Amino acid sequence: MASLASLRLARRLPLRGVRAIQTSADTTQLQSAPPESNSQPFPVKLHPDSFRSYQCDVPELEVEVTKDQLLTMYRQMQLMRRMEMAADALYKAKLIRGFCHLAIGQEAVSVGLEHGIVKDDRVITAYRCHPFAVLRGGSVVGVLGELLGRQVGMSHGKGGSMHIFTPSFFGGNGIVGAQVPVGAGVAFAQKYMDQKHATFALYGDGASNQGQVFEAFNMAKLWNLPTVFVCENNKYGMGTSAERSSSNTEYFTRGDKIPGLQVNGMDIIATLQAVRYARKWAVDDQKGPLLLEFVTYRYGGHSMSDPGTTYRTREEVQRMRSTQDPIRGLQRYIEEWGVATEQDLKQLDKDAKAEVDAAVQEAKASPEPQTKDLWTDIYYKGTEPPFMRGREREEVHRY
Question: Which whole number is the average pLDDT over 152-165?
């Protein structure tokens, strides 16, 4: 199958002309027959070119997975895609307004990340935040309700697409690159309070040239923060290809003194192994920050207002869908390794569709926020001032 990048794994800045990172979704090999038990681990081996490294070793290629884990990841990837497809339809029906950025095609990153971290780790990201919000403790109806501006939304209909939070998910952020220094600050708090957890701060290739990103790199390295900076390189920042916007498109090498790892972001197992490696680096080994670059691809445009075909060809998108889809790659593993049958997976597909369809109906039935809701959720509960002024001097709300 075709690949997206241009070089292979190396321990330093790679030389020109060496092999490309593998970005196919289905090149992991079974090492031995899976056990009967759904919870007993069994070994699989990643493609040798699943990783490239900068100033660090690459993760082990042999990975342990279980049947339960593979099926859970498949169900979650299908659920995330169905949810984003529903958001697409609701936007086109003009029920969702404003900005809306979908992550269709990038499901291996969000689901793989979630399976490689623990409950009290922290995640913060940019525009394509819907899957992370669900996986970090939210719900499909909570995300769709928020997009529709309804009270059932995770921010009670007052935040919208890029402002959805959970106790361990610090939201999508609308200012390009701004979540990266905020993520470093969250990691600083973890270290200050001696918490054995990491913060994963995600940004796109389009945000990679922001000055605040490099400032956050510098501070995180100076203070040895447990921060994993994650570049979701889907090859196009808005409508501009990475090659046109960045003089160095090997984003995993751009942390200067911070080691980096480039990862096949279309293979869920490679993603999972990379996140496990990064968490061990930052938390268990206390080596400070690490930079991950997931080479992935978005099927749609940058946002719903972007058709996504003026700066790339329809043939390119169709080729990626048909040859490197992350869900289809995991489906092949599950079927060929005897984890489940095609009929079993079709039932999971139906269940995901039914869950999203029900969530759409519940979200649409939920009322819009009321005028009094303008005065709520401004301050952290218990810290509100005695009164709050509105737009006009006479408009005062007393708590």
Answer: 95
